[in-house]
Amino acid sequence: MIRDRLKGALKKMALKAFGMEWEAEARTTHRAKGSTDYDASKIPKLVDGDGDTPGPNHKELIGRTVLAAQVVADSPDPVFDIRPPQEWSSGIIPRAHMLPGRQVLDNLHLLPKNKDDRISIYDATGEQQAFVVAEELRKKGYTWARSLQGGWAEWIEQSEPVEKPAVVDGMKFGLGDAVEFSKGGKRGTVQRAGPKDYDVLMDPDEVRKNVPESELA
After folding, report:
1. In this model, does residue 194 exceed pLDDT 70?
2. Strand 79-81 and strand 97-98: pairing?
């Protein structure tokens, strides 16, 4: 299909773009030489939200096609999944760090030392907290922190690459499982499982780390 071929061409263009100077404001416009006779009705319309836009130099958003090219190219630029742990079992963008809500802001050691490197943040729909988190990172000097337009919903709708979070053998609980503390009866959700203990999300602002399995029911 024409659209499939166009998507493939756009991904190749995005891969080439990763070697460019992303800070540059001015770009040279390239016009194809040759005949201008064509049937405009045969060219699929690209609109905001379809993943092919915005382009790679947008200052706040990253399009699905551009991020997919980055993933396919095995780029070292980090991607952060800030959805609730219960949603990770359906899959994540390959190699994404799983840190719900605003936790990225408390884990700056996971970010590139070079603040001009690209950082991508995504939530379920692109209309939740990812934009806010990316904006906060830009305020901290991470120039190319951007949120994924359309979020996870558009990513899977367009059949982009997906991987399942790793499962650690021998662990009683898995990512997203509801757990209860043996003492006190407080409840939470498993955010990290293994290799010897758990991180448990208690609420959007509290994570209990390195919890032994013996303390959970």
Report:
1. yes
2. parallel
Rama region for 19: left / alpha / beta (φ>0; ψ in -120 to 50; rest): alpha
pLDDT tens track for 95-139: 999 999 999 999 999 999 999 999 999 999 998 899 999 999 999
Q: The CATH number of 2-16+44-157 is which of 3.30.200.20, 3.40.50.1470, 3.40.630.30, 3.40.250.10?
A: 3.40.250.10
Q: How many CB atoms lie within 10 A of CB 6?
A: 15
The three-state (H, E, C) secondary structure of the chain, written as one string: CHHHHHHHHHHHHHHHHCCCCCCCCCCCCCCCCCCCCCCHHHCCCCCCCCCCCCCCCCCCEECHHHHHHHHHCCCCCCEEECCCHHHHHHCECCCCEECCCCHHHHCHHHCCCCCCCEEEEECCCCCCCHHHHHHHHHHCCCCEEEEECCHHHHHHHCCCCCECCCCCCCCCCCCCCEEEECCCCCEEEEEEECCCCEEEEEECCEEEEEECHHHEC
